[in-house]
Amino acid sequence: MPCPDSEFLTVSAVNEWCISKSTEPVLMPVESKKEKYRRRLTERVNELVHTENVYVERLRHVVEDYMPNMRRSDISPYFRALEADIFGNIEKIFRFHSEEFLPALRDCENDLRKLGQCFRHYEKRFNMYVMYSRNNKRATRLVFEHKQFFQGIQLELGDRLDLSSYLLEPVQRLPRYKLFLADLVKTYSNYENERSETESRISKLSVDSDETGGSNGESSDNDETPLESLKLAKTTVECVLTAVDEIMALENITDCPLYLNLLHQGRLLRQNEFYVMDTARRRRQLMRVFLFDKLVLITVVYRKQPRVEYFIYKDDIPVDDLGITAKEHDQHKFTIWYKKRNLKSYKLETSDPAIRNAWVEGITSLLWEQAMQKKELLLQQRNKRISMVSMNSEESAESERNDDKYNSLRGVPGEVKRLIADKKVRRTTWYCE
């Protein structure tokens, strides 16, 4: 519809012309799936860096505002003494993220391979979250018990969030990393699939296949791909989260003997629920069993609420005294027992053969490693004894040579004759020249 002549403009004519123009098709650039996935990847990386900035600033607020208030001279010494119990190692976490991890993330920009390597590079540093999570339960309880005191600090700071919310931030950060990395892995997989399909279609139409079917320049044969790097980073975070879950499970174990410190039993390798029968009492009961590097711990499961469970100490078997019996035809049971007290043993039963086999392999591996370590220790002790005997022999021989050197009359025949003449020498053999 042509534009109405300016001499005959009316409101209805203008409206009709505008409506006709609005219905005309407008050609907009269509975003391909490949471009969509690439944009999604960029957005997620930017979001990761942005949330890391926010996280660091919240940690800074705790370290620079809340913690100094716990050190003031005008507050009770009791509250000053609670600083370590409430804040744990949050200051170390803040220093790590502000000085190392956040700058490293910024340097990655949109290099996904470098981003994945960044997480793996700091794997050991992420382990500080394990100890923080272990302390967080106690910290939350202390803040709740003294909420009036901490609410006073909150009002002084004009803070919208309370201290408990800030202390929860590190506990939530690792799961968020896992979600970010999982989304990046999924999106990049879709991006790679779409790019492969596009290149495949183009290569069929292209006269020169070398121009479209070659490498995209993102990785060489010797380098890992961005997808592999992201998957490994996700596995790294999952391992730390597993360690956090394990240490939190230990916090729910009660009534342990005074001699037993679970933090000194090495790694927690696995934990599962079994129906356990004490062969001496012939009682079968649902129990949670923990396998450490140095110990097997047996506990009774006690559920106070559907999502709250505790484990009451039942017994423990040091790996040094541990034996295992597993029959190949029975894929649901195995027996553990004391080597030194054969009468005391426990039969463990599970409905999942995979769990049973994992435990049998895990315990067998521990016992094999222990046997190899003992063998190596015996060899070292034997070599040490041989070395000591050899050293003693050499010292004895050297001592005899020194005695001969200083006490014999070798080379002094005149003196020998004189001593013999005086009959003051009882020595019967002389090595005189």
Radius of gyration: 38 Å
Strand content: 5-15%
**At the third CATH level, what is the topology name of the largest domain?**
Dbl Homology Domain, Chain A
Q: Assign an overall shape.
A: globular
Order of helices and strands: HHHHHHHHHHHHEEEEEEEEHH
Annotation, overall tally of beta strands? 8
Largest sheet: 8 strands, mixed
Distance separating the two termini: 138 Å
Structural class comes to alpha+beta
Number of helical segments with 4 or more residues: 14
Strand order of the largest sheet: 1-5-4-3-2-8-7-6
Average pLDDT level = 80
Question: Strands, helices and their partners?
Answer:
Layout (H helix, E strand, L loop, with lengths): L10 H12 L10 H37 L7 H5 L1 H5 L2 H19 L3 H10 L1 H4 L1 H18 L1 H11 L5 H43 L3 H5 L12 H26 L1 E2 L13 E11 L4 E10 L2 E11 L2 E11 L3 E4 L7 E6 L6 E5 L3 H55 L5 H10 L11
Parallel strand pairs: 1-5
Antiparallel strand pairs: 2-3, 2-8, 3-4, 4-5, 6-7, 7-8
Helix pairs in contact: 2-5, 2-10, 5-6, 6-12, 8-10, 8-12, 10-12
